[in-house]
Amino acid sequence: MSLLSATIKTTVRASQVEVFEHIAPIDLTSIFKGYGLLPSVIGTQNQIGSWDTEGQTRTVHLSDNSSVQEMLTKYEHPHYFSYTVSSFTGSLRFLATSANGEWWFSGGSSGQTNIKWRYTFNARSFLAFPILWLITNLLWRNYMYQALQLSKSQIEHDVI
After folding, report:
1. Domain ranges, residue 56
2. What distance in Å separates the CA atoms of residue 82 and residue 137, rounded to the nearest whole number?
3. Three-state DSSP class for 9?
4. How many C-beta atoms lie closer than 10 Å to residue 127's C-beta?
5. pLDDT at 160 over 70
6. How confident is the model at residue 124, as a pLDDT?
7. Closest by CA position to 124, among listed 153, 157, 91, 158
8. What average pLDDT score do residues 122-129 get?
9. What CATH number is attached to the domain comprising 82?
10. Domains in the chain: how many in total?
């Protein structure tokens, strides 16, 4: 496990297929609302087709006028998907070269789905490491938690 990695988990009251099909192509603006110094997502651009093919890319625009490039690196419906985030144009460009997100989905009991989401930053240098560690552990984990809870709420509202 990386020191620059944050992992969160939750259980959603919906089938694994429903949960996966909601989260994998989710509208990022509906869940990334900003947290502390971390900006919200205000839109995506340059995505061609559905977010369900390895190698698919898009530009994610943030509320601090920065952007990142996102590439889907693995897509195994309805169990797992991963992506790489790179080409940071905001302040993270001084700290990280890229980041990797991974999502796992497994069927729980009574039509529930267990979700595990891990996000790992790749530090630009050993000097950036302590600052990136603080961001990962004090801000990013909570940013992820907030986004996952919003996703869970959307799914359970739509299903129930």
Report:
1. 5-159
2. 21
3. strand
4. 11
5. no
6. 96
7. 91
8. 96
9. 3.30.530.20
10. 1
